[in-house]
Amino acid sequence: MKIGILFDDVGKAGLDYSAPPEGNPGVGGTQYCFLMLMYYLSNIQQEDEIIVYCWNHKGSVFPKNKNLHIKYINEPEEAIELSVKDTIDIFLFNFSHMLTFQSLLEKSSLRCITWVHNWVRGKLLNAMAECSAVKRVVFLGQEHYDRYIDSPIMDKAVVLPNMFNTEGYIRRDKDLSAVVTYVGALIPSKGFHALAAVWKDVIRAFPEAKLYVLGAGNLYGTVDGGIEPVFGKLGIADREYEEQFLKYITDKDGKLLPSIHFLGNVGREKIDIYKKTKVGIVNPTGRTEVCPISALEMGAAEVPVISKNINGLPDVVINGQTGLLVNSKKQLTQSIIELLSDDEKNKQLGEHARNHVFSNFNPENITQQWVRVFKDMLEDGEVEVISPSKNMRNNFKWARVVLYNLKKIPLFHNLPAMIEIEDWISKRLYG
Fold first, then answer.
1. Can you give the residue ranges of the Glycosyl transferase family domain (predicted)?
2. Structural domain contains residue 41
3. Among the listed residues 173, 249, 252, 181, the one whose alpha carbon sits nearest the alpha carbon of residue 210
4. In which element (H, E) is residue 49 found?
5. Model pTM?
6. Pair 229, 270 in one domain
7. Domain count across the chain
């Protein structure tokens, strides 16, 4: 089997991608997932040929497996042309390219699989559903999948969670001080401002608490909306966003609180921070999150994670078992203080978090799931639709299920999916 993969790391230069199981080398979460998949596919499926079409020319180092070949391209569309020439059996690409690829794919003979790493709007969703070349659409978790249960995309949809290498993974130190670690880009959609807004309340209860911030405003090359960041006075985030959160974490003289430590974009050295961390924070607003790798990293290190009880977080952080999911600013403050003060609960959640990651995100198992999906595609197998069964209030899932069942009745078969209704409302409200 010949598998083609479009890998988009434009803007990254000279990074070492040779050993992704050892940790993220300093790319965004989506790119890291692609690196992990190409690494494990080429190691486990040694009889298969993996061709990576890399949209970058900046000298990064890839794994040197004999069946893994790197071809550099100037534009992502070149990957389609080369895949046809290379007689690729299956072509995998990030869903964000779907609209520009659609007409080219329809003219090709490729069998494609799109990997969805974020929440999808109706236009993109319909493009994937309608494109005959797209045979499978991969969602990252049950919550991710459930959000589109009433859409035609379900005829192509499968769930394949992100993988995380647990072999020899570190455990945090036994004796811990009050260290809280936030991991994520410093852009509005990743929610650092929500943590900043409660930090003074935390240090009133725990004056010795320290906050380590791993990430910066240029992790993805741009801020929300694809705009190049213009950094603020600290040089860590876009000026406008930096001003938004700095007011919460500076003293009356405008100086940064001594408990705050901005460490910027970090690679594998983040492990040293995790070992010292008592409480982990991942996107306290929950916006955009589907299956955050940072939550897996900290969970595997026995660090209980706090985040928002929304979107894909319930698949990654099991509330009250492996971490805490909150619904308000007050709950965020209380949860941080609780896990800083209750050592026994902190330890228990951390141990369960490690077991959860080890059991459900094992790379070898997930790679085999990918291989089964590939083989099923080649055999023109059909997809079984799985009806939602839990967290029915998450993103109005109950309403999506009602619509899904209603559309089974011929009279209502052409009703729009909930995501299309949401798009319609959004356009009317925000233009």
1. 178-355
2. yes
3. 181
4. strand 49-54
5. 0.87
6. yes
7. 2
